[in-house]
User: Fold this.
Amino acid sequence: MTETTSEPARGSRSRGSKAGKGLRIERIHTTAGVHPYDEVVWERRDVVMTNWRDGSVNFEQRGVEFPDFWSVNAANIVTSKYFRGALGTPQRETSLRQLIDRVVKTYRAAGEKHGYFASPADAEIFEHELAYAVLHQVFSFNSPVWFNVGTAQPQQVSACFILSVDDSMESILDWYKEEGMIFKGGSGAGLNLSRIRSSKELLSSGGNASGPVSFMRGADASAGTIKSGGATRRAAKMVVLDVDHPDVEAFIETKVKEEEKIRALRDAGFDMDLGGDDITSVQYQNANNSVRVNDAFMKAVEKGAKFGLRARMTGETIEEVEARALFRKMAEAAWVCADPGIQYDDTINHWHTSPESGRITASNPCSEYMHLDNSSCNLASLNLMKFLHDDGKGNQAFDAVRFAAVVELVITAMDISICFADFPTQKIGETTRAFRQLGIGYANLGALLMATGHAYDSDGGRALAGAVTSLMTGTSYRRSAELAAVVGPYEGYARNADAHQRVMRQHADANADAKRVDDLDTPVWTAATEAWQDVLRLGRKNGFRNAQASVLAPTGTIGLMMDCDTTGIEPDLALVKFKKLVGGGSMQIVNNTVPKALKRLGYQPEQVEAIVEHIAEHGNVVDAPGLRPEHYEVFDCAMGERSISPMGHVRMMAAAQPFLSGAISKTVNMPESATVEEVEEIYFQGWKLGLKALAIYRDNCKVGQPLSAKKKGDRDTAKGAGEQGAEAEKVVEYRPVRKRLPKGRPGITTSFTVGGAEGYMTANSYPDDGLGEVFLKMSKQGSTLAGMMDAFSIAVSVGLQYGVPLETYVAKFTNMRFEPAGMTDDPDVRMAQSIVDYIFRRLALDFLPFETRSALGIHSAEERQRHLETGSYEQTDDELDVEGLAQSAPRQTSLPQPAGTAGAEPQAPVPAPKEAHSSTELVEMQLGLNADAPLCFSCGTKMRRAGSCYLCEGCGSTSGCS
Assistant:
C-alpha cells in the first residue's frame, strides 16, 4: 500500500495508507454528510419467542426497531441475545441502532485514543463504515463483542481460549479454576494434557501417577456442573493428548467405554437421551477429544512400522506399539462415538508464525484457533454473498476490490479491540496483548458456490473458495503490516521475525501454485497475488501487528444475525428452508440461491420456474423437468437425496487450509453405513492433504441423541466397530394385519367446491377407532377423473385398514399443487392448492385430535380466530370433541363399499410427522430423514451443524463456543 499524505482517490489502493501518524480511511459504502442509519427504512416489531414443546414464553420484548430488510429470525436473535439492559427498564436497548452505536463508538474511541487514525475525519469514516457493514449484514463480530463491549461489565471480546497445564497438582487445580471461569462467561477453552506424566510412570514419592485420563474426570464433572448451573448450552471444551503419550490408548477408549455404558443403561430403561435425566451419570461427555499426531507417527502408519511411547519426565521410550494398530484404535473409537478427532502437529507448527515463543500444542473447542498456550482469539466473519455481483442476466463476479476493502476495515477494528479488551486470566491477557491474535473468517461459502453454479465438491468450487480465502488472509496481513508502521508490531515479533516472514512466503507460494479454473476465481486469485506481494514487501519493512490473522469459525449465532444461508465453510443444509414470517407463522421456501445458480447455468426463466416448483414439492432436483443430470451436483447439500460425500468435505477443507493462519471448524459427516476403514482413510487423507485438524461424525453413532429412529427397547447391533463382521441375529419380520370395518359404520358426507369443481366425500370410521375408509365422487361415472378418484379412494382406504396413520396421509398430500385449485366453499379451508389438498385438510379437521393436526399446521376457522384474539389455538373444555362428532354422525350407506384388494402390497406404518420449527426439521419431514442432531435446550427445536458445533435456528443458541 502506497504511503501518501495526499487525498486518495475513491477506490484507489491508497485506502488505509499511512498519513502522518495514523491511517487514512476511505469510504467504501457510505456517503459524506449522510449517516448510514438515514439510508434505510426502520420499523417496529414485537419479539416473542416460545418453547414450542410446552408453549412457554422464553423471551418477550415488544416495539423493537430494526431495518425493514432484516428477517424475523435475525431480529429475534439479536434482540434476545445481544440487547443489553434489564427487560422492562429504561436502560434496556430497544433498537439495533443502540446496539451498533454501543459497539462501534467504543471501537472508534479506542482507535482515536491509541493513535490509529490520521484525523478525526478518518475516525468518523471508520465509525460510519463499520456501522454500515453491520447494519447491512456485510460482517459481524463474534458474540462476546455484542455481549460485552460498551457495557459496565468486563469488555471481553474473545470467544476462543487455549489454556495450559503442567505436571503438578497446583497447575491441575489452576486448570479447573481457569476453565470454570471461562465456561461461566459463556465461552470455551482447549488444552493439551501431555505434560502430565502417565499412569505408567512413578511419582517422586515412589507411587504410580494417576495419569491425565483420571484428571479429565474432575474437569468433566466441573464442566457439567457449571453448564447445569444456569447455562442453556453445554460447556465447550477441547482436550488434546499427544500420540506418543503412554496413556494414549486409555485416552482413545474413554468415550468408547462410556458409550457402552450408555447403551447398557438405555436398555435397562434409563433416560440416556441428550439432556435426559440419567445422562449425567456418564463421564467425559462435556469435551471434544483429539489425538495430536506427528509426521513420524503417520509415516510409521504408512510403512507399517512400530512407534515409541515416551515418558513425560525423561523423554525415554517406555513402550513400542504397532502404529497401524494404534491408528486403527483411533478410527474404531471415532466410528463408535465420533471421538477422538485428530490434529496434525507437524503441519500445525510448520505454519506457526511464533515458534521461538513456544510450540502450538492445542486448540480451542471447535479446532479453528491454534496458537500459543494461555492465549485467546477474537473472531469476526464476512458474509460472502454480499460480495457477489449479479446483473440479473446470469453474469456474475465476485467483487474482490470491495471485499478487500471490508477486510481491511474489519481487521483494523479487531486489532483496536485488543487495546481495551479484558481477559479471564492474567496469563491469557498478557499473551494476547503480546501477540494480538485475530481470527477473521467468512460465512455463506456454500451459498456462494451454489449461486455461482459451482458444485461444492468440484474443482471450480474449490478454486473459488481457495481464492477468496487467500485474498482474505493476504489482505489481513497486508493491513497488519500497515498497522505495524502506525502503532508498532506485536511485542513478540522481533524474536519471531524470521519465522513469521517464512510463513508469509509459504502462504504466497501456495497462492502462486493454486489452480485457476474459471472466470469467477481467476480475478480473485489475481487480487490475492497482489496482496501477498504487498505482504512480503511491507512485512520486511514494518513487521506485523498480529501473529495470527484468519481462521474459519462455525459462525453460528452471528451467521443467523447476518441472515446467512450457510455457516462457515459448510455446504447448504438442504434446498428448501424454513422461514419465519412477520406477524407470526412460518413458511417453507426454496433457497434464493437456486434460481441464481440456474441462471448462471444458462436456464431460461420458464425452466427455472419449473425446476423451483419441483424442488418445492420434492426437496431435491432429481428428475426436475429440464434440468440436465450433469448439473445435479451443483445442488448437492449436506443432507438429502444427493448428499455430498465425506471426501468432498475433506477436499474443500484442503482447498482453504493453505491460506489460513489458523484452522477450520468443521466435522466431516459420514453415513451410518460407513466402515472403520473409511474413517481411517479420511484421517489419513487429512494428513496427506495438509489439514491441521479433522473430526468425523458417523450418523446415529451416539445413543445420547434425541429423536432416534430406534425404540428404547431395540437391541443395538453396532456396539463397537469390531462387531461389524459378527454374525447377524435372526430377524423376525412383522407384517401388518388388515382390520376391516363392520357392516354398519358411522360416517360423514361432505359436499365441496374447489376452484369451481364440485364433489362429494364420504368418510366412514370404526365405531371406536377413527377413520377407516374414504369415498370420493367427482364427475360422471365412467370418466377418467371418476375412475382415478375411485382407485385413489380404494388405495387410501386399504392403507388405513392396514394401519397407516391418517396423519401420515395428511402430511403427504396437503400442499400438493395441481388444478383445479383455488377458493373453496368450506369456511375452515378457504383456499386449497388442489382437490387432494382440500380432502386431507378436511379429513384432518374431522378425524384428527387437535394436538396432532395443530402440529401439522391445520386449524379450523374458529381456532384461527381464537389465535388472533388470544395468541393461542388451544381448545376450551366446552368445544366439541372431533371423535364425538365422528361417532355421533349419521350412518351413510348411499355409496358402495370399495372392494378389497387381496393382492395389494401392505404398507408399513410410518412415524407421524411433526410440525417443522427449523430447517433441519423441515428436511426431516420432506425427505423422510432423521437428522442426528440435539434439541435446543432453550426452545426445543432441532439444531443443525455449524462447524464442529450445533446451532439453533430458533433462538441462536449454540452447543459450543460462540
